[in-house]
Design brief:
It is built from 1 helix and 9 strands. Strand 5 and strand 6 form a beta hairpin. The protein has one domain: Galactose-binding domain-like (Jelly Rolls, Sandwich). The termini are far apart. By secondary structure, it is mainly beta.
């Protein structure tokens, strides 16, 4: 399996944990090459998020309900339709194509978040650009975890050697927690491409998250988001399991 790994040096302080956040991008040869990286049973598995204002819906070709919100957390990657997680094109410069919020079952310490995107067509839709925000008070207030662009602007994915999948792994670069006591997560997914397989940021002019002008017009072709994983810190798993056991005991 041919893969490519890129480290992006966009470091942002996570207010909830004072962590230095970084991301690593892995590319796979086909749309299913990175399926073994999906974390089955993570804290988002099976959850359906709330769609937030400014969301622009789905690409007109994406009509199967299972290729829409459930696809983000079904632990399955791309489905046989080939349209799994296909977001709407032309959201507008600086406007997310998809904006969703996950409300966790309990405050959770998170060690890693990862985003899998891809396309059977092996084009610019395999890229991803995501802004993640989090809350530790039940959604009353949110702080920004960071802006995560899978590949540098100008990167081209076309031709016989094109990749079919992209995995962005987001962690604390010091090996600590990514965020602690998280109760809610917001994911904003942006357009990534110009129809020519060229990665672009979603802004005309200076990108307010990076402070850089990639000198390219804003992306308007959106990705296929195949999976979102949020991986808890091991002690959080034990805490959640302990709480469930306690509830079962009380009900007996």
């Amino acid at each position: 399996m041919r893969t490519s790994i890129t480290c992006l040096a966009i470091l942002i302080l996570a207010a909830s944990a004072n962590a230095a956040v970084t991301s690593v991008t892995i590319h796979g040869a086909t749309s299913t090459s990175l399926n073994d990286q999906i974390i089955v049973g993570d804290i988002l598995s099976g959850m359906i998020p709330t769609v937030l204002p400014v969301d622009t819906g789905w690409h007109p070709a994406n009509t199967d309900p299972l290729d829409q919100l459930p696809a983000f957390t079904d632990d399955g990657g791309i489905r046989g339709t080939g349209l799994t997680g296909l977001l709407n094109d032309f959201p507008g410069a600086g406007i997310p194509a998809k904006r969703v919020q996950y409300d966790l079952n309990a405050p959770t310490d998170i060690s890693q978040i990862q985003i899998l995107s891809g396309n059977n067509g092996k084009d610019g839709r395999i890229f991803s650009t995501t802004v993640i925000s989090l809350s530790t008070d039940g959604g009353s207030n949110f702080s920004q975890l960071g802006y995560f662009q899978s590949d540098p602007s100008g990167t081209i994915n076309t031709g016989p050697d094109a990749f079919g999948a992209t995995l962005v792994k987001i962690t604390d670069d010091g090996g600590g927690l990514l965020a602690s006591g998280v109760t809610n997560l917001i994911f904003e997914f942006f357009a990534v491409d110009n129809t020519g397989g060229q990665m672009r940021d979603p802004f005309d002019g200076v990108n307010p998250y990076t402070g850089i002008d990639d000198t390219l017009s804003a992306a308007f072709v959106s990705p296929l988001i195949l999976e979102i994983d949020a991986i808890p810190e091991p002690s959080s798993i034990l805490l959640i399991l302990g709480g469930l056991v306690g509830l079962l005991v009380l009900r007996r």
